Amino acid sequence: MSYAAYKMMHWPTAIDTCVSGFVTHSRSELAHLPQLHTDDLDSEWSSRRHRGGGIGPTPNLIVASGNVLEVYVVRVQEEGARNSTELKRGGVMDSVAGASLELVCHYRLHGNVESLGVLYVEGGDDSRRRDSIILAFKDAKISVLEFDDSIHGLRTSSMHCFEGPDWHHLKRGRESFARGPLVKVDPQGRCGGVLVFDLQMIILKAAQAGSALVQDEDSFGSGAAISARIASSYIINLRDLDMKHVKDFIFVHDYIEPVVVILHERELTWAGRVAWKHHTCMISALSISTTLKQPTLIWSIGNLPHDAYKLLAVPSPVGGVLVIGANTIHYHSESASCALALNSYAAPVDSSQELPRASFSVELDAANATWLLKDVALLSTKTGELLLLTLVYDGRVMQRLDLSKSKASVLTSDITTLGSSLFFLGSRLGDSLLVQFTSGLGSSMLSPGLKEEVGDIEGDVPSAKRLKASSSDDLQDMVSGEELSLYGSAPNNAESTQKTFSFTVRDSLTNVGPLKDFAYGLRINADANATGISKQSNYELVCCSGHGKNGALCVLQQSIRPEMITEVELPGCKGIWTVYHKNVRSHSVDSSKMALDDEYHAYLIISMEARTMVLETADHLTEVTESVDYFVQGRTIAAGNLFGRRRVVQVFERGARILDGSFMTQDLSFGGSNSEAGRSESSTVMHVSIADPYVLVRMADGSIQILVGVGMEAAIVNGSSDSESLKLWHIVAAISVIDVNLKNLSSKKSVSACTLYHDKGQEPWLRKTSTDAWLSTGVSEAIDGADGGAHDQGDIYCVICYETGALEIFDVPNFNSVFFVDKFVSGKTHLVDTCMGEPPKDLLKGMDEEFAGAGRKESTQNMKIVELAMLRWSGHHSRPFLFGILTDGTILCYHAYLFEGLDGTSKLEDSVSAQNSVGDSSISASRLRNLRFVRAPLDTYTREETSSETSCQRIATFKNINGYQGFFLSGSRPAWFMVFRERLRVHPQLCDGSIVAFTVLHTVNCNHGLIYVTSQGNLKICQLSSVSSYDNYWPVQKIPLKGTPHQVTYFAERNLYPLIVSVPVQKPVNQVLSSLVDQEVGHQIENHNLSSDEIHRTYSVDEFEVRILEPSNGLWQIKATIPMQTSENALTVRMVSLFNTTTKENETLLAVGTAYVQGEDVAARGRVLLFSLARNPENSQVLVSEVYSKELKGAISALASLQGHLLIASGPKIILHKWTGTELTGVAFSDAPPLYVVSLNIYCCGAHQYNMLGKSTDRHTASNLFRVTYAPA
């Protein structure tokens, strides 16, 4: 596939903004309440809420990352729930054992989201209406989105654009603005405001409840779930209200009409003119009359500090607004005011007044804030420190502000509260965190099981589970340190009430940005013999990511390369399976308590072209083909377990065998003998699907047969699409037979693909889509588990796709049709039961355009489904996925969801009466009337052509490979499909080329591993890497640096990565001033104006160093460190190959370019440093030797090597040097003013022709191309 401009390989992960709101559910719905799994749900939940336990109503989390919009729902697990067997992250707090984020919908937009807001609905917790999302794009484009249950996604309710010729007057002649639009919403949901073009405020009036716009039932059939909508909009010109330079605005609480408070500055100033002009900001409160469309000034406050930049509305009953500045915090309302000084730079308006001061010094520029309680706000500073601001008031009179320190966390870009017990820290520089908090009086609220140190809690979790819970090593390190821990208590200094807060991290979202630089290096386990597409997996991107304490190296790999344990040659393999054997007679009490995931496999079955091999998986793999009763004279089609892992079923081309370990208990034949002469298409097995106690078999002629296990025996039920009723076929006289009647196969055509779906669990998910579906199922209740209890309770369904492209779902064993979709092969965006009626065409208009080219033309005659799978993985809230593979290799992926339409019953009854294939109303009542599917994008998977005649099954499901779950897709382009937060992450595996067989392997020597066979005939036993995180667009490993990475390069000969890192260091002010000295003229910095306290105050200074890192077995170690001088910043580092004109040899050296940062009074200068790198033979350390150092005028901003010469860029000048072994001599130069070169890259464009691509910066970033030519000698 070709791309006109570019292809986005890795989508943004840095969160720019986040908000919370009841978007997918209302406050009154039970969808957001924790699932308790008790018989009496109402009474138990009421008692818990009365005791104060639990989290309560929790809104959705909406995040924006560049042009990516995601909506999450918070899943809470209560303490003592039946499904709380797995240790959750964070321990138990306030009767909550765990909380996680689950993805609801994900959209890739055509522009970056500049601002995000939520339009709240009126009413309290009993309101059934939902909130809406307001998106703002440059320059003045606004979209209002609401969640539609019928499509299980967002749709646009209104769009507002204030651009174009009709709106040019709003810009007042300007073409660009410093910031984009800003969205704020009235807390009572009466209107919203969007600030565009700096001084134009767009008021979005919300439709009132009961109006025609809100009551009008939309064509999408969302029923009673109606969201907030915009009725009209108009513009307020703030310039007409004598406002200039608006910094922020906010809607405040407790007013009859919407009131917006605007922070603006009448006359600009800056820090250098504070002595002459200060306190230039003011706030103005405007009453917004959406009827008259005229704002009214009701009160204003002036003489606010010039560095005030943010407003925070104070909740009821206090009301008012907080004005946050870099050095002060002010509270103002219509009747009261107070302030708090944060450091010594805070100055009152009148020198005679003295501001109350905080107990410690802090700066709040670039801070983010949210409310934890009605009188306690959480502030996140630019250094990642968390502060608690307490409002001490009496009635509605504010007395004072108290600020106290809490723990530190990630550097945040935004912060929002989720309900009454959670908040979310969104970050552009590190991983974003979901944090639970609890408050009380006096002692800490931590439960006995929750300790102060996070490391102790994380250490109790298995490594694989910890990796799933924590999205990166950087996050683990971040929450493990004392400085960065979110755990612990933070008492307030308020005298009246001593509040104590405790925090625990519940979940995190991985972030690999922002990327400053990257290097292209060789992976540790690279294959030197790889060729073609397999060679791509040998390389990885090592990226400089993050800032400050969140700085890290992100190792990105485009594909997965498992860690190999052993490899053997096995030519001619067609399939592999691992099976369990649970011996009832020797089954001890202790082993019965062992979790199913911890049970080891017993046998490995390998199918060859004309025979079958059986290996015993004990301490070692031992072949036992000759001593077992497996069918080994031909190839095996499939193998699996039945009767709670107490029996093994082996299906081959002409029959099946039931085995108790190695002993056969039953031999079944599908007709005729096993000889070649007796074979026919009707008795040759092509595909098998196993769901205990059923085995579904598809024959070569398109017919299907079902093997049913009953009371440790079996019977065969033959269902052919050529007959209207199911025939019973006795194979062995002693077999018990279940009387099954099939009345409605929907097509006389043959079956192209089929599968069984086991809806497991205490509460099977598909039962929710039909109120009485469970009445016709439940065969598994008769199957006893090994411990005497019921095994794998749930329902079983048969999913069939016909040659015509239609898909149908039957319940088992009654084989009543419960779901039917025509033209499934066409790749529709939504699947709805035909009996429920097709969704309106308007439903698809607002959908994502990701499937614009993915749909199949109806005229395609040869397109059909060759493989089908319906899967649901563990998790109480998990929903089934439906997969279909087309003949051209395209994978159709659908995610099931529940939608209860208001008119579904009437449509169903009409359809039943009109169609003979459906039968009577008793059968129609069991249909999955509320079941729908939405197509999920798989744009990262590259399809491959698939032969429709092949019998090889490509989808292999796994539930625990190193703690991960999903399925593996074999073929010429194998890939991993992993499930995280109810979303699929697709990661290709290119290292071995085509893979013909795959299965899981859990033994003593290969714990929760895997085994696969390549097309070259190599069988490999492997494990997934435990240091990488796969919940990302690419597999990623984050190495924390505790500093800011700036530039990285790769030394291929030694497999080393030199890296520039800056670390903030606290130094006394007098020491900092003494370093700002021009050594050439001896100019000293005068400090006689500083007081004694100011001289001894510490100041943060970045110290630079070059670290030499080496990857080894997944761990990155610092082998050497090159420190820079005081006030010297390392700007560039590169490995260069220089030709020594003295020795006539090439030398590979490490080149470093630096600059001295000493203020504007000192002339700019820098150094060029050359180092040789060698390995110490006595230990693993790297020896670094300086071979050259020279100080030059100007900063050395870029370096590169060109045919043995060294290119040095210093600002606008590029100089070419030759290397003599002891000296660099300039031989050519080029000036490119007024540009400033920041990077140089060399590439070859032909024989002896080299081009140099230089990236430079001026007002806009630009790239310039230079050609290097050599004059004749």
UniProtKB/TrEMBL annotation:
Residues 99-440 form the RSE1/DDB1/CPSF1 first beta-propeller domain. It comes from the Eukaryota. Coiled coil: none annotated. It is found in: Nucleus. One of its GO terms (molecular function) is nucleic acid binding. GO terms for cellular component: nucleus. Residues 562-1024 form the RSE1/DDB1/CPSF1 second beta-propeller domain. It comes from Dovyalis caffra. The keyword Nucleus applies. Pfam families: Beta-prop_RSE1_1st, Beta-prop_RSE1_2nd, CPSF_A. The lineage of its organism: Eukaryota, Viridiplantae, Streptophyta, Embryophyta, Tracheophyta. This is Cleavage and polyadenylation specificity factor subunit 1. Its main location: nucleus. Residues 1104-1241 form the RSE1/DDB1/CPSF1 C-terminal domain. Keywords: Nucleus.
